[in-house]
Amino acid sequence: EAGVAQSPRYKIIEKRQSVAFWCNPISGHATLYWYQQILGQGPKLLIQFQNNGVVDDSQLPKDRFSAERLKGVDSTLKIQPAKLEDSAVYLCASSLYGSPGNTIYFGEGSWLTVV
Amino acid sequence: GQQVMQIPQYQHVQEGEDFTTYCNSSTTLSNIQWYKQRPGGHPVFLIQLVKSGEVKKQKRLTFQFGEAKKNSSLHITATQTTDVGTYFCAVNTGNQFYFGTGTSLTVIP
After folding, report:
1. Confidence at B95, pLDDT banded by 50, 70, 90
2. Which neighbouring-strand residues pair with B23?
3. Does B96 contact A56 at a Cβ distance shorter than 8 Å?
4. Residue A45 and residue B1: Cβ atoms within 8 Å?
5. Kindly report the CA angle at A112 between A106 and B3, in degrees rounded to 5?
6. Is A28 left (phi over 0), alpha (psi -120 to 50) or beta?
7. Which one, of B38, B36, B54, B50, lies nearest residue B91 by Cα?
8. Which residues does chain A have within 8 Å of residue B50's beta carbon, measured at their own beta carbons?
9. pLDDT value of residue B4
10. Spatial separation of the C-alpha atoms in residues A43 and B6, rounded to whole Å
11. Which residue in A76, A89, A113, B28 has its CB near the most CB atoms, within 10 A?
12. Is the N-terminal amide bond of A25 cis, ω within 30° of 0?
């Protein structure tokens, strides 16, 4: 079974530039998550989709971050304009459903450095 | 969002020593999951605990869910260098997953 696919793996941009990350979840998984993990910290949930609807985006900095999952399958996360503090690993994950008890499967992550 | 604290933040042990990390929640949990993240890697699911007082074992790893379902522990017996990484607990509130602050384990050969 194919895992969660993410691209690009690594990205270096200057501050105030924009960047987009792509994620393709495990086939059949209804729930998709984007997490931000700053070095030395635990993953922080940015946004959670159930099919193509948003379940939770309370921690998404909406003035610069946006995410979509138009057809309920793959998803993109965009940052515009980027700030230095956005340097982190952006982890996409999926699960069958978002309900308690479902295991989350993570992709390899997209490493962003903002200079 | 959900507050989940883990202690200690860092732990250095000699190979062969035991290791324990604790996860504490401010609210009663329906279940708790544990993940391991190797340096440079992504979190990988280890186990899920659901019942009050539940204890599960995976080889040298023992996972426990508190009686009040507000805390959990992960104990590793006789650590090996392959145990190096950060161990996270993760909890559900409603349909959202929140991760703890993590415990970074270093094993000294």
Report:
1. low
2. B6, B72
3. yes
4. yes
5. 55
6. left
7. B50
8. 101
9. 84
10. 13
11. A89
12. no
Residue showing tokens 């009050």:
B52
What confidence score (pLDDT) does residue A52 get?
87
Q: How many CB atoms lie within 10 A of CB A28?
A: 9
Length of chain B: 109
Q: Which of B24, B25, B74 is nearest to B48 (CA)?
A: B74
CB contact under 8 A, A41 and B102: yes
Confidence class for position A70, pLDDT limits 50, 70, 90: confident
Tokens read off for B85: 């990484």
Yes or no: say if B31 and B49 are a contact pair by the CB < 8 Å rule. yes
Residue B1 scores a pLDDT above 60: no
| Residue B41 structure tokens | 């890697």
Rounded to 10 degrees, the C-alpha dihedral A56/A58/A61/A63 comes to 90
Closest partner residue to B97 (CB to CB) among A33, A40, A58 is A33
| DSSP string of A72-99, one letter each residue | SS-EEEEESS--GGG-EEEEEEEES-SS
Residue B83 is given by DSSP the state G
Amino acid identity at A63: D
Of residues A6, A32, A44, A5, the one with CA closest to residue A96? A32
Tokens describing residue B27: 């609210």
